[in-house]
Amino acid sequence: MAEVADFRSIRLRKHADYQRVYRESRKHFSPSMSYFFRMRTAEENVPEGPRVGLTAGRVLGRAVERNRIKRRMREAVRLNIERLPRTVDVVLHPRKFVADMEFSKLQGEVARIFSTVSTHIEKRGAAKGERQ
Predict the structure, then answer these.
(1) Domains in the chain: ranges and CATH
(2) Which SS3 state, helix, strand or coil, does residue 99 take?
(3) Shortest CA distance to 93 belongs to which of 38, 39, 29, 50?
(4) Which of 19, 68, 90, 125 has a CA positioned 20 to 30 A from the CA of residue 25?
(5) Quick one: residue 15, left, alpha or beta (phi over 0 = left, psi -120 to 50 = alpha)?
(6) Distance from C-alpha of 37 to C-alpha of 25, rounded to nearest angstrom
(7) Tens digits of per-residue pLDDT, 86-98?
(8) Bridge partner residues of 110 (DSSP)
(9) At 64, which helix (H) or strand (E)?
(10) Is the dihedral of CA 59, 60, 66, 71 positive or negative?
(11) Measured between alpha carbons, how far is 63 from 5 in angstroms, rounded to an integer?
(12) Whether the Cβ atoms of residue 110 and residue 31 lie closer than 8 Å to each other
């Protein structure tokens, strides 16, 4: 089995990176979260590999609950990161019940989201290739 990435090496760090994803994307929905994604361009000076950002606002509960949600989300992302293309940025917005969701279901949902993102990007790339 391949070495699983550390979440710190794959996360979106800067506010501007989050804003760029929001500005260049549409909101997508899954049963327990919403998500945004965008392809990075070759001109951007960022490390190679997919990057993922998580949000956990106060609407999700007290700090203890938000931190638990973020820990669970980070682990689910870490276990499924290889499903994403190397030049994509993704932002995940979990809903409150993710804190109590069975972890295998959470991991499966993150896997489905990442597969959907990959498929969408592959289709977009194929469509651009046809136009050129």
Answers:
(1) 7-131 (3.30.230.10)
(2) helix
(3) 29
(4) 68
(5) alpha
(6) 6
(7) 999 999 999 999 9
(8) none
(9) helix 63-80
(10) negative
(11) 26
(12) no
